[in-house]
Write the structure tokens for this entry.
Amino acid sequence: MTTATRAAVLVILDGMRRDLITPELTPNICALMVRGTQFAAYRSVFPSATRVVSSCTATGCQPRHHGLRGNSMALLENGQIVPHDAGHPDFLQHRRRVTGHALDRPTMAERLAGRGGSAVFSNVSPGAAYAHDPDGFGFVYHRAGSFGPGRTPLAVGIEDVTPDAEGDARMTKQFLGEAITRDGRNAALAVLWLGEPDASQHCHPLGSPGANAAIAAADTRLGEVMAVVAQRRAGGDNVLLLAGSDHGHQTVTEVIDVNAALAEAGFKSSGETAGDGLLAISNGTGCLVYLSPTRTDGQVICDFLRSQPWCGQLFEGATLAGIGHEASGGLLCALTMRCDMTSNAFGVPGSGASAKPLGAKPDRLGFGQHGGLGPWEQMPFLVAEGAGFMPGAVDTRDASPIDLAPTILRHLGVAADGCDGGCLS
């Protein structure tokens, strides 16, 4: 791959909430805000979950257009609702077999094939990592398996990278050596998606020493990337640096079994199964509800869900478009769980209910969670430094992950036709 004189570097600190950025805890983010433009109204998508945001980032499109609707979701297979964990390494390949496409819109990796290429280093779930390039146009590095063009397996020795701060440090070292240093691969687009502070915020209270240590560690990784980008620029390269997060967090104070509630109300016989054509699939503080096309009681079900005290907002029919979805593929409605301004024991505001996940996944009372539309989980950050962005500026336009691909592609001189988002520069 030829050396790129114009490049884009994207660093994501998974789960970093914008209001938790401070000079003491995140000095590198704060330094970048002085050198670049921060987006004060930057928000996530729905569900505000990593696999969905990864797909939106990769394609510049809303979930209704790229097709990956949730961290967990369902597919209509032979007329039946079949639940899936979109984080599974093989999910997107399975979706291709069912629907004809891994994702329904082209990724940046596809658009950049033959134009400098892409390299994605991800320390989150394999499904989120592979969403950046499910069709094998560039390079994807992940502990579950790394691939080059044509999805050719790569032996890179990161199979034991752990999804924590230590693993992020190892992944960043590999990223710096392979993707953005002047003697490395020098991809036109280099993406580093850190697992922290999200991983720690799911198992430590927000604002606690454990959660704050993860924030500080992720900020250190960003500082390492900033230093190498500065070297690239000193060597004459025109590098756009984007740093941000995919969603925020809020504290879980209640866990609701939505399927059990539907069963108790008589809409289904068993909470866990979709055998009767109705299934609610948790996405943390958001929930996707699927209904078989053969059933005719969809409106009654929506009315029931909307009336529950744990339901924050419910979207059905035409209103689904307002959150980037549509009533197709068996999706009946989407709902957010209730939330409020209550602070936790460490003084971090934002609390609410979470939907109980299918299977044996643990409930997360007292810890961070996301997925819905609450103000705290819809509070990621974004800073852009480079050509087209003013140092120290604060941009108050509405912006979200679907705007990243048009912005990056514009910088690289590649068309962004078909994207739902717009260029931020």
